[in-house]
Design goal:
Shape: globular
Order of helices and strands: EEEEEEEEEEE
Number of strands: 11
Largest sheet: 7 strands, mixed
Length: 127
């Protein structure tokens, strides 16, 4: 069973950048598709992006495409979310999630697919 811990959140101004990290323990992310999700107050948790086991493919929601980038470092058992050109509407708690799969190139966007979740890290973007 893998435990996930996010870090790197904070309070920034619109247009700034942040890099979130997700460190895994008790398991190996190399066996997982890794996803990032976010939840704003009063809203459902939504898909942000995902990276396949192989690392060859990433997929993003339309709202972050072109601004956010997911990467992974299997040697460090970690996944990252680089967020550029942040907007106030990006304010949310950000979660990383792991989906164990034998498929190197499967990348679900449905949060129900993911087996393990971190506790989340708050990102607040002021205007």
């Amino acid at each position: 069973q893998v435990q996930l811990v996010e870090s790197g959140g904070g309070l920034v101004q619109a247009g700034d950048s942040l890099r979130l990290s997700c460190a895994a323990s008790g398991g190996t992310v190399s066996r997982c598709t890794m996803g990032w999700f976010r939840q704003a107050p009063g809203k459902e948790r939504e898909f942000v992006g995902t990276i396949t086991r192989s690392g060859d493919n990433t997929y993003y929601s339309d709202s972050v495409k072109g601004r956010f980038t997911i990467s992974r470092d299997n040697a460090k058992n970690s996944v990252y979310l680089q967020m550029n050109s942040l907007k106030p509407e990006d304010t949310a708690v950000y979660y990383c999630a792991a989906y164990y799969t034998s498929n190197l190139n499967y990348a679900p966007m449905d949060r129900a697919k993911y087996d393990y979740w971190g506790q989340g890290t708050q990102v607040t973007v002021s205007s």
